[in-house]
Amino acid sequence: MTRTASVLRARGARLGLFFWLAAPAALAAATGGPVDPAASSGGAPVLVRDTEVGSVLTDMAGRTLYTYRIDEATPGKSACTGTRYTMQNGRQFGQVPLPAARARKTCMEKWPPFLAGADARPAGSWSLIAREGGAKQWAYEGKPLYTSGKDRRPGDVDGEGGLPNLPLWAAAMAPTTLPPGFRLVRREEGLVLATADGRPAYVRRGARLRRKVSASAELLQPVVAPSFGTVKGKWTIFDAGGIKQYAYDREPLYVLPDGFTDADAQREGGWATALYRRAAPVPAQVGTRTTLLGKVYTTDTGMTLYRFSCTESEVPDFLPCDDAGDAAAYWSALCGDAKECSRRWRPYRAAANARPSGEWTIEEVADPPFLDPAGATAPPEAPRVKAWAYRGRPLYTFVDDDEPGQTLGDWINYFSRSSFDAVVVPGPGIY
Amino acid sequence: MFGRVARTRDRFAISFFGALAFSAGVAIQPAASQVPTGTIGLVITGWHHALHETDDPKNECSTGYTAGDYTNAEAQPDHAELRRKFGHPYSRGPNGELTNYSPMAVEDPIPPSELTTRTGYGLNLDGTADGKATPRTCAHAKFASPEGVQVDNQLARVVGCTKGWRKGGFSDAFYNEEIYTNPVNRILIEITGVDDERNDPQVEVAIYKGEDRLTRDPAGKYIPFLTQRIDARFPEYSTKLRGRIVDGVLITDPDPDATARLPIRWIAKVAERRIRDLQLRIPLAGSWPVAMLAGYEDNKIWWNSQKAHHIAMPAAQNSPPSQYRALMRYADGYPDPKTGQCTAISAAYRVETVRAFIAHPETPQQRTAAATMVHARCPCSDPAGLHGASAIPS
Asked: How high is the pLDDT of residue B264?
């Protein structure tokens, strides 16, 4: 993963702008150079870091900052508090005790607030909220910021997640230099330029601006630029015979019309998505395979890889429950006792010479994942194996998958709480 | 290119054949220029367990509907303790297991309702009149069809008293809506070598996974004669059969060595069916009341497609411990040579279809030809270099 960063100073925010500092200072900050938080008094001491999901805000230690969807219901206040819940208040089933409630962490313990010094002052998009107990917490564009207990290394963005169709925790994204109407979307190949509605931009392979662009581009339409728009950096606007068209890195940009899918562009042949930043290489031990779920990651023998995820959906703080030390009941509901869970879900062991790459890391994983189904996961006495993890979550194979490409372990689901799911390659899906 | 051409065909099909079909009110043979002569395309629009049922389940089942998972959970003596210990309202196993993933962890305290009717729908898959064991089947009881034919459909004994799978039930309705909404469920049937739609002693039948959506008219009926493209990404979901047409009904021949794989998506669970010895009875021009698809469903693969629906259990009134045991008990196909346990279960489904144009993936030559045609007619083509870079910063 390329990891460059620049200091984002809130002094700039006073002017309504962010200063993207020149490379030397930026790299100094990124590489642990002398950045004095005091110099940012009156502003938030934050960095910008390029990650696999885009440019994110981090604290001065490089920890990714996150926003919390539930905070939207309490403007000016944080909903992530030190309250230790012991009961679920289910809409369907009423009051039910939480499993292993005594070991349950609080939201504040799992998501430490990004606190401000006593002399911090709001500026521009940066504001301060008061926490219970009197501490001040930074907020960006009105959203309180947190770090995540899931992130273990600078540059990790493992805290993103939540419920299906309801992301609760999102990395705080730094403003980008993209022209209006563009955004970045994550796909297998990396971060790709896309229109505001999420349609990826395409380039004609080999069609650099200095040559004539092929005339066979009638299915994919030019991304039209405003007549008097200005761009900078790798962006250009050129006259494409009566219209203005965007180009990035000297390659004209096109999009598919409404109703067409990625598969249509593939059938056309000769088109590639407009890559903004290439993804880190996938480890040699990991492959991909197209299934009815879409393209999924597999072992080197083609067996589908799965990950366990969990969110306590019936508790006001919606805490994740897939961290080491969380209730084992979320596992045992899906796979039985420790021995049976270990039989069904096998950690995908990393080869002795394996090295992490981008979002792919090698973690010490408890196997079996718990010893007492009424206790907590990953107790210290549980044996550990070195296994592959994707975005911080260990990867498993499923015992019932008998052949490459089978996905029998997908959507094994403790509804709205824990779930085993095949790890789908980022991208548009198959439909 | 394939997509553009196919959509052009869609528009043509809707405007021309669709209008003709509506005005005539009958199925229409496609023009020779659109579909090769002697080819019939069908797309599946409905799929139901072939159950012989009345409005009152007590007519067919020992105690009416089977009690569902939650009803059984509340009848367990340790229900409150399990709820307190494991935090799920309906954890039922000793380790807090949900029964759909660990059906053998616990038995249902309420005995399941058993199918008692001797009348049923299906096909005679094992070729016997009495269901005695054969080298590839386990002994089982046969149903008598309303016409008096001995037929196999052991899966009806597994699901026939489950409210959700009966007529108008939650599971049945949900799945059939997902056939409409999700292209994972797109199954195409292509019959080739048809000389006479009423009687033809030999035709070829191919089943494919499609990739396009279905279209309904304002009355909710599926519109026939639209283009359905074969999803070339999934050749594993293709099956070839041989058959014949008798009095307007397509009848395919059994092939005990073939396993058909069919895609399924139900309540967000993407899965598949594996059906051995698949056979079709599909009315094309006659008065046969229902189209039927039958064969031996692989136990494990079938259970996988069912097991993830904990959310659906209250509405489906489905209890996995009883259902899983019934699956194993009634399985009647392909015994495991070591254990003797049958690994598949005879099943019959009532399917609904409409005619469709089935578009095959283009060969490179066809793609080139199609591209030439498009360039010739498309006003947005660019011989003058409209999309070329005329003011190019170097």
From this structure: 96
Contact state of B378 with A292 under an 8 Å Cβ cutoff: no
Is A149 in the same domain as A17? Answer: yes
By C-alpha distance, the chain A residue nearest B98 is A333
The answer to whether residues A375 and A250 belong to one domain is: no
Query: B181-214, pLDDT tens digit by residue?
Result: 999 999 999 999 999 999 999 999 999 999 999 9
Regarding whether A292 and A271 lie in a shared domain, the answer is no
The more confidently predicted of residues A169 and A230 is: A169
> Do A324 and A403 belong to one domain?
yes
Between strands B226-229 and B342-359, the pairing is: parallel
Residues A23 and A163 in one domain: yes
Both A245 and A376 in one domain: the answer is no
Question: DSSP of B101-122, one letter per residue?
Answer: T-GGGS--SSPPP-B---B---
Inter-chain residue contact A329 with B96, CB threshold 8 Å: yes
Q: Which residue of A has its CA nearest to B269?
A: A411
Nearest to A181 by CA among A266, A250, A248, A264: A248
A103 found inside a domain: no
**B84 reaches A (C-beta below 8 A):** yes
Give A-chain residues touching B390 at CB under 8 angstroms.
238-241
Total-model pTM: 0.87
Residue A98 inside a domain? The answer is no
Is B374's Cβ below 8 Å from some Cβ in A?
A: yes
Question: Is A430 inside a domain boundary?
Answer: no
Residue to substitute from A332, A341, A344, interface B, most B β-carbons within 10 A: A332
pLDDT class of A294 with cuts at 50, 70, 90: very high
Asked if A255 is an interface residue toward chain B (Cβ–Cβ < 8 A), one would say no
pLDDT of residue A357: 96
Domain final position from A275, A296, A314: A275
Segment B264-279 shows an average pLDDT of 93
Range of the domain at A53: 5-78+113-171
Is A87 at the interface with chain B, CB within 8 A? no
| Phi, psi dihedrals of residue A305, rounded to the nearest 5° | -100, 140
Q: Please name which of A129, A160, A161, A131 lies closest in space to residue A142, comparing C-alpha atoms.
A: A129
Three-class DSSP category at B311: helix
Number of domains chain A contains:
3
Give the nearest chain B residue to A214 (CA atoms): B388
Residue of A nearest to B212 (CA): A431
- Shared domain for A302 and A187, answered yes or no, is no
Distance from CA of A91 to the nearest CA of B (A): 12
Domain boundary among A224, A255, A275: A275
pLDDT digits (tens, 9 = 90+) for A98-133: 999 988 999 999 999 999 999 999 999 999 999 998
* Inter-residue contact A27 to A110 (CB < 8 Å): no
Its ipTM equals: 0.86
**Are A164 and A23 members of one domain?**
yes
What is the number of H-type helices and E-type strands within chain A?
6, 31
